[in-house]
Amino acid sequence: MKPDTCPPSSAENNTLSRCYGFDIIRGIAAFLVVSCHLSISTTDAATLILRYNQIAVGLFAAISGFLLSQTIDRVSTKDVIKKRFARIVPLHVIWSIIYLSAFSLSDCFLHTPVGYLQNINLVFIAKAFLRGCATVHLWFLPSLFYSSILLVFIDRLFPRKKIMYLVASAIVLFGAALLNNHLAYYDIRLLAFLLMGFGLFRILPESSLSISTKKALFLWLIAVLLYGFFYGHIHRYIIDFILILVTMIVFSDKRIPRTQVGTFFSSVSLLVYLVHVLIATLLSSFIKRFFHMPAGILLMFSTWLLVFFLSVVFSWSCNKLLKRLKESFKSFGKTEKERVSNI
């Protein structure tokens, strides 16, 4: 078993270089996930296209597993857990409070005739923070944290295992198929793709393919078209697994160069995921209240694009604001140090 704190060799440092292809995938996944929570009825044609949103969360989980696998051998178990806690838990708590407050204070957020505030009790609040049930999508953060910790302990118990993670992810995914509509279904599905990403880092060579960004996108679009063609003919969980696996292999190539578009969407993808339900609910309420538009593919796509655009603008603005605040605190700290030294 590798020691927990062994320093990476030069070869390992080479392997740990960033995969810029994942920046592109984060942007695509953020765009897809917005459509999952639009409360607008759609036509059969729109439903056919929206089937692709099912892979969005799987892509996020697979990328997270891949990145976790990059660092897990270089730090102790305690440090891995600390870092995952610091990255995920505060974010989950803050956004749970935001959604609990927003849903309680505004009628436009209500999905039932009963007021959201009337349903809040200690049990509901505990579930909101422990399971992420404050709204339809926050389950992802606590589930990602719990699954990551479980994966860390699995890796410590079975070190240097490679193909085991891919086999395990396939088994877990089919287990999720049996638990369809069960409470634990989404958690098990997330764990499956986390295992996939984790195993791929151990299996793939430093550069599995030698392709450009355009070629990567072209190969991925072929996979997407095949996914649409075979959807309904092959079991949904098999075809989801294959498409996400192909996507991870294609875009994990470290020779894919860094792009400004990819970097931008990578920087806003998490906030887009967190805020889009809030914006979608507000926008849907506004449309229903002031416009009488027939439900259809045009309304669905226009709403989808508008929600995504507003979510990206909000996320970009927040990133800019946080960057300025950090710079202000740094400059303030330097000024204080200079003032104290002068005294």
Helix-strand pattern: HHHHHHHHHHHHH
- Overall mean confidence score, pLDDT: 76
**Helical element count?**
13
Tell me how many strands there are.
0
Which term fits the overall shape? globular
Textual characterization of the structure:
- The structure is a single chain.
- The protein has 343 residues and is an all-alpha fold.
- It has one domain (10-342).
- It is built from 13 helices and no strands.
- The protein has helices at 10-15, 21-34, 44-50, 56-71, 77-105, 122-131, 140-157, 163-178, 185-203, 213-230, 236-251, 260-290, 297-342.
- The longest helix has 46 residues, at 297-342.
- The radius of gyration is 22 Å and the shape is globular.
Give the structure's gist in a few sentences.
This protein is an all-alpha fold.
SSE blueprint and pairings:
Blueprint: H1 10-15, H2 21-34, H3 44-50, H4 56-71, H5 77-105, H6 122-131, H7 140-157, H8 163-178, H9 185-203, H10 213-230, H11 236-251, H12 260-290, H13 297-342
Helix pairs in contact: 2-4, 2-11, 2-12, 4-9, 4-11, 5-7, 7-9, 8-9, 9-11, 10-11, 12-13
Key features of this structure:
globular; 343 residues; mainly alpha
